[in-house]
Design the sequence.
């Protein structure tokens, strides 16, 4: 437990300090959402309709942004070697790193959503629905991204490989996240159906992500 | 020994499985005997990197309190051998055995690896960096202050590691070995970037570790000042101790 907590605290500290990824993701999210109304024009009804989708796309891209460095930074400075030599199973270490990433990237995105909802003319109920789906859905983005991040590190291909690998896998999360948000706002599908599926994807990624990431790292780092 | 020897409780099926199935590949686990010395043995190791055979038929045997110095030209496989022992690189053939260590732990979990990279985060302070590794690798917080003093970094403890010089970074990663007690030290060019005073301090620390029945395997080009060290020469010419252990 000490080792898990130490790793979690270290990754969160690095993320919130200068040069870390936490603020970058939130700022990126802000930029995407703020720019959209300018591109779409001043059509309030249209903004309201596409609002949840824009928030979700922004959150997806913002989560991907810092994921690239999740293992690559540790690989480059030799920390990953020592993490492998610890007594903690690599699966736990990978899950802990993903949790730290979500706490510093995913959670802030959820928290700034009400502010960004104003830019998109979303009603309070709609903002609440988007927040709830993001709260449930962003862990899935992080843990799916964890697989891509470990593969990119193991194959020593940064940058481009990650979005190409990860985005297709996150499409179901995006579909059900936006569907649940829209169901809460306009119907006619009940909110529960897509939301339950979204929860299922998240739970699945929580299980599969760390194991796949650990397998990729073990296999690749030789 | 003899009839008075205490019989270890049998672990039965698990022990059998560990002995014969070798579930963890090249690293073999052995139960510790209370009267048995720790011993690290490599047998017939073959290293292939990028399709090229770096070394083959390599063997060594190091007992507690001994140092093994790896010499050889660049590319002879010194780092590869250290990484192999640390479990970071799988040998193409052969195996590494650790006798007399802690039973449940593999070689990697009882070893410190000091590689070319310092494994430090520039945005964390000196103390935070060391504290993280101490906690992650299973050490205690009490040893931190004395470890920092031992490498002469106690006055810089609250400085972000990004401001350290190369030699200071090296000393900080050496502090890791002192903050977490592990008996096997795998050091790759530990004197790189260190000044003369720090090199002497390192030699003293290594002597101290050997005095505490530790094992040190060190790859180096320069003299280390260890008088009782075995030499293992990698590369085209093989030393007699190596040929003996390999057969």
Sequence:
């Amino acid at each position: 437990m000490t080792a898990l907590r130490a790793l979690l605290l270290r990754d969160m500290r690095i993320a919130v300090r200068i040069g870390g990824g936490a603020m970058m993701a939130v700022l990126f999210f802000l930029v995407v959402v703020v720019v959209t109304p300018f591109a779409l024009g001043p059509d309030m009804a249209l903004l309201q309709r596409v609002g949840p989708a824009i928030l979700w796309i922004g959150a997806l891209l913002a989560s991907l942004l810092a994921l690239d460095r999740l293992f690559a930074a540790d690989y480059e400075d030799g920390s990953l070697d020592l993490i492998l030599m610890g007594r903690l199973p690599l699966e736990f270490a990978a899950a802990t790193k993903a949790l730290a990433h979500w706490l510093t990237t995913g959670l802030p995105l959820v928290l700034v959503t009400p502010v960004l909802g104003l830019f998109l003319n979303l009603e309070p109920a709609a903002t609440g629905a988007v927040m709830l789906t993001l709260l449930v859905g962003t862990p899935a983005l992080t843990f799916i991204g964890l697989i891509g991040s470990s593969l990119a590190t193991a194959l020593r291909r940064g940058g481009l490989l990650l979005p190409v690998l990860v985005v297709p896998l996150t499409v179901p999360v995006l579909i059900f996240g936006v569907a649940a948000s829209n169901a809460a706002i306009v119907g006619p599908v009940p909110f529960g159906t897509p939301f339950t599926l979204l929860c299922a994807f998240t739970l699945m990624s929580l299980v599969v992500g760390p194991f796949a990431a650990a397998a990729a790292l073990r296999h690749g780092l030789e | 020994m003899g009839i008075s020897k205490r019989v270890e409780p049998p672990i039965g099926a698990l022990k059998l499985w560990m002995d014969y199935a070798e579930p963890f590949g090249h690293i073999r686990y052995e139960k510790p005997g209370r009267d048995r010395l720790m011993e690290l043995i490599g047998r017939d190791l073959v290293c292939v990197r990028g399709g090229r055979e770096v070394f083959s038929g390599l063997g060594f045997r190091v007992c507690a309190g001994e140092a093994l110095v790896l010499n050889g030209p660049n590319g002879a496989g010194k780092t590869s051998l250290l990484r192999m022992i640390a479990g970071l690189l799988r040998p193409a053939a052969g195996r590494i055995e650790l006798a007399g260590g802690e039973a449940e732990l593999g070689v990697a979990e009882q070893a410190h690896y000091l590689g070319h990279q310092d494994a430090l985060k520039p945005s964390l302070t000196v103390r935070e960096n060391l504290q993280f590794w101490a906690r992650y690798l299973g050490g205690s917080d009490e040893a931190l202050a004395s470890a920092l003093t031992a490498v002469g970094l106690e006055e810089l403890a609250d400085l972000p590691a990004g401001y350290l010089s190369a030699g200071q970074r090296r000393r900080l990663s050496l502090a890791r070995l002192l903050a977490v007690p592990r008996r096997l030290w795998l050091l790759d060019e530990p004197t790189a970037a260190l000044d003369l005073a720090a090199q002497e301090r390192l030699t003293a620390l290594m002597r101290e570790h050997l005095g505490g029945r530790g094992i040190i395997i060190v790859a180096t080009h320069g003299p280390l000042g260890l008088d009782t060290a075995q030499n293992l020469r990698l590369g085209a010419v093989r030393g007699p101790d190596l040929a003996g252990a390999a057969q």
Observations:
- The longest helix of chain A spans residues 124-154.
- Residues 2-220 of chain A form one domain.
- Chain A touches chain B at residues 2-3, 5-7, 9-10, 13-14, 17-20, 76-79, 81-88, 221-222 (CB under 8 Å).
